[in-house]
Amino acid sequence: MSTKHSIAAEKFNQDSGRVTRHDQTFWSVRSKRDGLAYQLEEWEQLRESANLIKKHTITHLADYLEQFETNAKKNGVHVHWAKDADEYNDIVMEIMRQHNVKKVVKSKSMLTEECHLNDNLIKHGIDVVETDLGERILQLMEIPPSHIVMPAIHVTREEVAACFREKGIIEKHGAHAAEGLLKEGEDWRTSSDPTYLTRAARYHLRDNFMEADCGMTGGNFGIAETGDIVVCTNEGNADMSTSIPKLHIVSIGLEKIIPNYKAMGVFQRLLARHGTGQATTVYTSHFRKARPGAEMHIILVDNGRSSILGNIEHWQTLKCMRCGACMNTCPVYRRSGGYSYTYFIPGPIGINLGMLKDKEANYHNCSACSLCMSCDNVCPVKVDLSTQIYKWRQELDSMGHADPLKKMTSAGMQTLFEHPSLYTTALKFAPLANHVPAFMTNIKANTWCYGHTMPEFAKESFHTLWKKGKVK
Amino acid sequence: MKIGLFVPCYVDALYPEVGVAAYKLLCSLGLDVEYPEKQTCCGQPMGNAGFQNKAEKLVENYDELFRGYDYVVAPSASCAAYVRFFHDGIVGHECEAAKRTMDLVEFLHDVIKPTSLKAKFPHKVSLHNSCHGVRELGLSSPSERNVPRFNKIKDLLQLVEGITVMEPERPDECCGFGGMFSVEEPAVSTRMGKDKLRRHMATGAEYITGPDSSCLMHLQGIAKKNGEPIKFIHVAQILAAGL
Fold first, then answer.
1. Does one domain contain both A18 and A95?
2. Strand B71-74's sheet: what is its strand order?
3. Mean pLDDT confidence for B102-108
4. The pLDDT value given to residue A145
5. Exposed, middle or buried, A409 (CB in 10 Å: 0-12/13-18/19+)?
6. Which of A329, A443, B159, B230 is least surrounded by Cβ atoms within 10 Å, i.e. has the fewest?
7. Tens digit of each residue's pLDDT (9 = 90 or more) over B147-187
8. Cβ contact (<8 Å) for B225 and A393?
9. Do A93 and A237 have their domain in common?
């Protein structure tokens, strides 16, 4: 029995060149991160501080949440609490109805992805436009993100060009965008020049910013001491989304609250270095209150987070600040792609968050780990990702989802290893297996032979050699 | 100093020469080495597959068998790490033997600290830093972290006359074995192995060597299937060369 991840991963691996590109893209981000890490003498201290601050905050979360709410309200911000995705979507719709919103511009937010906000807005007749370029490309292509920080990195520029043509963006903005940019003879109608495409997207988004009557952002951090929301972007789209419309709605998970700006200084130094290998994001935007005549709302979303907090084995996943570094370093993620996971967040943190969200739907991802522990060592807040995956695996049998072959093998090993005499006998006969012809072992059920030849048993095991006095 | 030699199950059955080399090496350093015959496995294959509960009895057996030794030494980084970091959790109490279980390289480097060895090995080798050796036992500095660079395996190999030690690009990226990971995720596991093999071979080495035969077994299986000429040898065999 194969997991959904292993089946999807095998498909992904049929195109070897694509695996190479995917692996190299994310390894280069990991390498950039390493380069920055080695430059900071206090790197490991920063990670430890981040770990301790997060642990402290999460174990005092109720207090910090209340402090945050009080201070945000003092700033004239409307604060809402949503216990789950449905309640969250209802709150959003209620605010939009009050303001008669027809069009929303959004900066990147994995929380809205988690709560299926866009589908819900569309269902209610509201036009929603993603303004992070990667997210906008995915929205136009009607496909989900494959990574939490670089959501469209698996899409080629040729595919982007084709999509922009199909959606009329090239027809409307292409000629203008191409001015003084494309080489002579290069046709803007067919060009996939990245700078040109980005400029076309920029004009396209400008129109949308101008027309929108609500701007939505996520939040990388909520500062309890001041009630501020901090949003980190590279494109400035959070600022654009909130500068024109008179309504700003922030959606933020409970665990994103941190105590104060001193703590913020620690996380801000770690976030971009880990996520994209930059010393800082291009924009770090601080939102404290609405401008005159405008309104600002913050929706604090639980959606399962407080039950994670009560989970003695897995509560530390709440420390995660969604930098994506564990994906970039994961050798399995790099070679299987974001879509091979059943949860919308892939990689090591996604395996864990998926299990916490819905075990039945997401146990398939537990196979996607060689337990190499690289993720534990890159994580800026020291989530023990691989240990947690190991723990989930121990639960699969009682859930009825253990791989039967693995179970049988483990039971066989148990019998053998608990009985030294049986084990010694098995060792004696093991070399006979060497004489099984390759065509009998190289069968589909023996997945070892997918990529390997069978190992050869020694003529005499160490046990036998020892008994015969041959170990000297 | 009384040493209990632990030759993990797959080394016992597939690579007895690694156990022999470890034994000879330890004896040559003047240590009193015993091999308790009733030993079998550390339990890792079951645990990583999600069945650590099936390893409870063998963990107790292990503790019983090895608790009388000053150190238990195993020529297999991953097994030694599993014993030391997982046995207590499996049986729910402290295990005496687990505390004193060390990988061969770690034991030699940190406890015995030899300044010279009799071994000669006039070959170019590419060093395979296996994950659990790096990230659990600390045999080398993990590339993810900003800590002073070190490599205990390399330090020991440098004592061998004539040897040239290389490291592949991405020196501690996983080779893709991962126990039953390799049979449950064959496509990714094989791809990881092929990538690792290519990087090892790019060093121009004649041999791939490492402190963990399980990674080597995985890479060897892939090399053979693809007709790659590179040879494999455990670190213990190099350190014991000529004994």
1. no
2. B32-34, B2-5, B71-74, B101-103
3. 98
4. 93
5. middle
6. A443
7. 999 999 999 999 999 999 999 999 999 999 999 899 999 99
8. no
9. yes
Residue A209 has pLDDT above 90, yes or no: yes
Question: What per-residue confidence (pLDDT) applies to A410?
Answer: 87
Domain membership of residue A189 (yes or no) is: yes
A296 and A220 share one domain: yes
pLDDT band at A443 (very low <50, low <70, confident <90, very high): low
Higher pLDDT pick, A397 / A131: A131
CA separation for the pair A35, A49 (Å, rounded): 20
What are the DSSP calls for A359-413, one per residue?
Answer: HHHHGGGGGS-----HHHHH-TT---HHHHHHHHHHHHTTTT-S-HHHHHHHHHH
Q: Tell me: do A346 and A281 sit in the same domain.
A: no
Whether residue A217 sits in one domain with residue A296: yes
A35 is a domain residue? no
3-state secondary structure at position A44 = helix
pLDDT of residue A437: 66
Q: How far apart are CA B75 and CA A74, in angstroms?
A: 64
Question: Domain B2-112's class?
Answer: alpha beta
Same domain, A196 and A230: no
My answer on whether A133 and A255 are in the same domain is yes
Residue A265 has pLDDT above 90, yes or no: yes
The per-residue pLDDT for range A70-116, each reduced to its tens digit, is: 999 999 999 999 999 999 999 999 999 999 999 999 999 999 999 99
Measured in angstroms, the CA of A366 and the nearest CA of chain B are apart by 10
Name A324's Cβ contacts closer than 8 Å, sequence gap at least 6.
Answer: A147, A148, A149, A150, A274, A275, A347
ipTM: 0.97
Asked if B145 and A460 come within 8 Å (Cβ–Cβ), the reply is no
Average pLDDT over residues A439-452: 75
Domain stops at, among A396, A417, A436:
A396
Point out the residue among B20, B41, B185 whose CB comes nearest to the CB of A471. B20
Q: Which CATH number does the domain housing residue A124 bear?
A: 3.40.50.10420
Question: Span B124-239: which CATH code?
Answer: 3.40.50
Classify residue B35 by its DSSP letter: -
A303, A270: one domain: yes
Phi-psi region of A397 (alpha: psi -120 to 50; beta: other; left: phi over 0): alpha
Length of chain B: 243
| Shortest CA distance from B149: residue in chain A | A38
- From residue A158, give the alpha-carbon distance in Å to each of A135, A190, A194, A197: 17, 9, 9, 10
What domain count does chain A have? 4
In a domain, A146, yes or no: no
H or E stretch covering B210: strand B207-210
- Please give, rounded to a whole number of angstroms, the shortest distance from the CA of B1 to a CA of chain A: 19
